[in-house]
């Protein structure tokens, strides 16, 4: 092979590499453009979707095709609505807007993570001082305010009011965590002991439920609901004699 032929082949090889690289770049650009377009289609579909489960699925597809903060927020919000706390937290941790922080705080409340929710909602509050953020921040133990709770000065009463507010907002795990914290600090009243007893009963911890109800009875020995629950718990614990005694006493204090 002559020197001229070698030069020609070398030049052809370089040209082929350039053409291949250019073609690959165009193909990648085309694929990226297609992925962005399809991602936006799924995102638009998710926004209009009435089914929360389908909304989550469509927004997840949008994330796979082309991750955006909007898609993370939509997926995280849907996960919050479906009580998928950990999944919601995974998505919403990628969002830094006030809405994203609010939704992240909600997912943490769903999981009973009061301290994490308080910190997240405090950040959301610095960006947007809405009433919703203010209330949730207060209920999680931070600043803000709740008109129905924050004016209460008695700590035991405030604990049960906070519990009731969180239950109304559908955050049962956070509500129970509030009472658990109050129990550790000695701030429980009759209603708090009853609420904790019911929570332990639903968890199958009948003995602790029974002990909580006895403490509630010490505070208010004539409150019918205490005896109604004591009867159920005593029966679960096979305390037939005690159950009969509570039933007899209940019949005397109710009409």
Report on the structure:
With 255 residues, this protein is mainly alpha-helical. It has a domain of 67 residues: Serine Threonine Protein Phosphatase 5, Tetratricopeptide repeat. The chain has 13 helices and no strands. Helix 12 packs antiparallel against helix 13. It starts with a helix and ends with a helix.
Quick recap of the structure?
The protein is mainly alpha-helical and 255 residues long. Helix content is 78%, strand content 0%.
The computed structural class is mainly alpha
CATH superfamily of the domain at 189-255: Tetratricopeptide repeat domain
How many individual β-strands?
0
Any low-confidence stretches, pLDDT <50, length ≥5? none
Overall morphology: elongated
Give the name of the CATH architecture of the domain at 189-255.
Answer: Alpha Horseshoe
Descriptors:
elongated, Serine Threonine Protein Phosphatase 5, Tetratricopeptide repeat, 13 helices, mainly alpha, 255 residues
Question: What's the structural blueprint in terms of helices and strands?
Answer:
Layout: H1 3-48, H2 52-65, H3 69-81, H4 85-92, H5 98-110, H6 114-127, H7 131-139, H8 155-168, H9 172-185, H10 190-202, H11 206-219, H12 224-236, H13 240-253
